[in-house]
Specification:
By secondary structure, the protein is α/β, with parallel strands linked by helices. The protein contains 26 helices and 24 strands.
Length: about 775
């Protein structure tokens, strides 16, 4: 990079408080998960030893500081000892809470508890749930996951009396519960649960927020979900609408999540507006602070929002006061306090994004801003938004890419265009919704104006997200990505280069070019069938040369994107949906971002089916632009994918409303030498079970098939002994989620397959499973 030496700001000094905070954060993030396996009796001993070491190091550091010999290395050692002590004592407390949950669980009768939600309820695969603070009749307080009845969309801060049995974490999810500091789970009994607002104990801010959400839902029209997310921090509606996926696809997810970057952008534009009114610096600072407090109050003031607000205020203080070292010390103090109060937050994604974006803004915003030296108008219009988001991304983008399993290529453009529109929507929305809560009679006009202010932002995000290939799928461990983020920050701080607009543009272009050079499936088998690990769902890739066909998508977007990244798939000739169950087609809507498909293949008659699932599938197809590229398949139809010839066997017609019995069943025949004779065959069955498969066995080769995709995730009805013997597969593949509530796969099904002598692979144990085809043999390789 080249530029004017005089325009480069001095490299900031890293104050001791920041070093201590960063080391404590990093050490806690590494130590906390490992203590889950430590013996309970060892935790207090380890804590006391570490505490003693920390006291000794602190006294030594103080003596050294008085003599002028203080070192950052000694401070880092002190922070490390403090992290061990902190994790040990908190771990011991959590272990005690888990033991209490285990004692309360088992076969004991349901008990009555007082629960207070510490976050908004979220809709998961199995209903609504939220983290909550639980208090029993004996006064014991626990942090738990509270499973709520259907449609119990409760808000952070609401409290209620619930009845249920407290359960310790199951083995399959024990690591998640430990990492998040949860002692167990409690499923609220629906018969004893009252969701009416009058029965809930809520504070004034919760009532204000509920009023705002209800008014927006009633008067906001199509833009109500976006307005709820921007003003109130309520995400379920925007997630269900599909708009949140668009924000993620173009690198704007931080705008609809209450993060440090989100609040920084909002308050920065508020301050800019106040400056236009020629208010002094003090008045602008006070007014901006009041706006920040009010804005966070509208989100319900969860801990994550409060942390984000403190981080945002710290970063903006550095920009306004031009005192970066003070802001860096304040950030370090925030890290010490937040991690010290709750070690589990060291592993929180929202905490990492808020702290990282603030660190990036404070450290690197002045450096990037120097690229616009001598161009004040360009800096004001283009530079400031790009500098704010760019400096934030420097510290968070690798981690965010791993978290969302995608790297948005349009992020710089999207932030530049959407920044002012986002601020307009937030400002108008905040004022209009507040006035509507105070004067409900005026709500239709006020909320209507706020929704209108959201329309340009929604239109821009939808337009950018509609561009195919806007993202590169990423498969990386978040921890490794966080380390990379830290390394990039350290490297850039140490280098502290001169920057220019041309240099920044060239660096970005080179990075994008490198991604596309590395994207082709180099080293992958030329012809293969791949079972993708997408949790409790199906997604199978048929690849031959440059051709690729995806059969089903699963319903966990990030897992599908990560799997496509592992297989280096950037485009698809077609995607076949066997039937309309969500666990087979729920992630269709994200393919256009990372691996655009040229056609959509479905069973004949499915587009005309009026059931809810089929209607939702067709709506997703229209959103993805696949409705006009839709092909209805019936028995006897053939689809080509390189050396694979794929013949439709089932269904004869839709007889189950697009359900399991109507699953598209496909016979793939591989002809490696092109002589017209199939060397190997594979049968894909969707969720069809033995009853349906028995009716199509006469269409299969007499010797059976070499590869079998077992129907319905290996349920007890997917196979019987005679069908397994008739199919006689060499390799059986079962797409299934770990510790799923359905008990898939059935032990009987596994036994039937074992008796045929085939090798059975389940995605929960093996991850991605690649079956490579060659003239001589089938070669199976697994992810783990």
């Amino acid at each position: 990079m080249t530029g004017d030496l005089d325009s480069r700001p001095p490299r900031p000094f890293l104050p001791p408080l920041l070093v201590a905070g960063l080391v404590l954060w990093a050490a806690t993030a590494l130590i906390w998960p490992t203590l889950r396996l430590a013996p309970t009796a060892a935790l207090p001993v380890l804590g006391m030893l570490a505490l003693g070491a920390a006291v000794w190091l602190a006294s030594h550091a103080l003596r050294a500081a008085r003599g002028g010999g203080f070192s950052l290395g000694a401070l880092a050692a002190l922070s490390l000892a403090a992290a061990v002590a902190l994790c040990s004592f908190w771990g011991g407390a959590l272990r005690g809470s888990m033991a209490y949950a285990e004692a309360q669980g088992g076969d004991s009768a349901p008990a009555t508890w007082h629960a207070e939600l510490t976050e908004d309820a979220r809709r998961g695969d199995f209903g609504w749930h939220a983290e909550a603070r639980l208090r029993g009749a004996d006064g014991r307080v626990l942090r738990v996951r509270l499973n709520l009845p259907e449609d119990a969309a409760l808000l952070q801060g609401q409290s209620m009396t619930v009845s249920g049995t407290l359960k310790p974490p199951a083995k399959a999810v024990a690591a998640y519960y430990w990492d998040t500091g949860l002692a167990g789970s409690l499923t609220a009994s629906e018969s004893a649960f009252v969701s009416e607002e009058a029965a809930l104990d809520s504070g004034p801010f919760v009532h204000l927020r509920r009023c705002a959400l209800d008014l927006i839902a009633a008067c906001g029209g199509d833009n109500a979900p976006l307005l709820q997310a921007l003003v109130c921090g309520w995400r379920p509606a925007i997630e269900e609408s599909g708009l949140y996926d668009c924000f993620k696809a173009v690198g704007l997810a931080h705008l609809v999540a209450v993060s440090g970057a989100h609040l920084s952008i909002v308050v920065l534009f508020v301050a800019g507006g106040l400056k236009l009114l020629r208010l002094g610096r003090k008045a602008t600072t006070v007014a901006s602070a009041l706006f920040l407090v009010g804005y966070v109050a509208f989100t319900g003031m969860p801990v994550s929002a409060l942390r984000a607000a403190v981080m945002a205020a710290t970063g903006l203080f550095a920009l306004w006061a031009n005192r970066r070292n003070s802001a860096l010390s304040a950030l370090g103090l925030c890290l010490l306090l937040f991690v010290g109060a709750d070690p589990a937050c060291a592993l929180s994604a929202s905490f990492a994004l808020s702290a990282g974006s603030t660190l990036g803004i404070v450290l690197f915003a002045p450096l990037l801003s120097s690229a616009f030296a001598g161009l004040p108008r360009l800096k004001k219009v283009v530079g400031d938004p790009l500098v704010l988001t760019g400096s934030s991304a420097l510290a968070t983008q690798p981690y965010a890419a791993a978290l969302f399993s995608q790297l948005p290529l349009l992020s710089p453009l999207a932030n530049l265009v959407a920044g002012p529109l986002f601020s307009l929507a937030c400002l108008v929305g905040f004022v209009a919704v507040l006035l509507a809560c105070l004067a409900p009679a005026a709500a239709p006009g006020l909320i209507g104006a706020a929704a209108l202010a959201c329309a340009p932002l929604s239109a821009v995000v939808n337009a950018l997200a509609s561009l195919q290939g806007s993202c590169v799928p990423i498969d990386a461990a978040p921890l490794a990505a966080a380390v990379l983020s830290g390394a990039l920050c350290i490297g850039l701080w140490a280098w502290w280069p001169r920057v220019s607009i041309g240099g920044l543009a060239g660096t970005a272009a080179a990075a994008v070019l490198a991604l596309f050079v590395l994207r082709p499936p180099l080293g992958m088998p030329t012809d293969a069938i791949v079972m993708l690990d997408v949790g409790q769902g199906d997604a199978f890739l048929v690849r031959s040369g440059a051709s690729a066909l995806l059969i089903d998508t699963g319903n966990q977007d990030s897992l599908l994107k990560a799997a496509l990244a592992r297989q280096r798939v950037g485009r698809l000739d077609a995607v076949a949906v066997t039937h309309s169950d969500d666990d087979h087609c729920g992630s269709l809507s994200v393919l256009g971002d990372v691996a655009p498909a040229s056609a959509l293949l479905v069973p004949e008659g499915l587009p005309d089916c009026s059931c809810k699932a089929c209607s939702e599938l067709m709506a997703a197809a229209r959103t993805e632009g696949l409705a006009d590229a839709l092909v209805e398949l019936s028995p006897g139809d053939t689809v080509r994918c390189g050396k694979f010839s794929i013949t439709v066997l089932w269904p004869e017609r839709l007889a189950d409303g697009g359900g399991n019995a109507d699953s598209l069943c496909l016979l793939a025949a591989w002809d490696g030498d092109g002589d017209g004779a199939a060397k190997w065959t594979a049968l894909f069955t969707g969720d069809a079970e033995a009853e349906q498969l028995d009716q199509l066995t006469n269409k299969l080769p007499a010797s059976g098939v070499e590869v079998l995709k077992v129907g319905h995730h290996g349920s007890k009805k997917s196979l019987d002994a005679s069908l397994a013997e008739r199919l006689s597969p060499k390799v059986a593949l079962i797409g299934v989620g770990e510790a799923n509530r359905y008990g898939h796969p059935s032990q009987n099904t596994l036994d039937f397959l074992e008796k045929t002598g085939c090798a059975t692979y389940c995605s929960d144990e093996s991850g991605d499973v690649v079956v490579a085809f060659s003239e001589d043999t089938l070669t199976v390789s697994t992810q783990r």
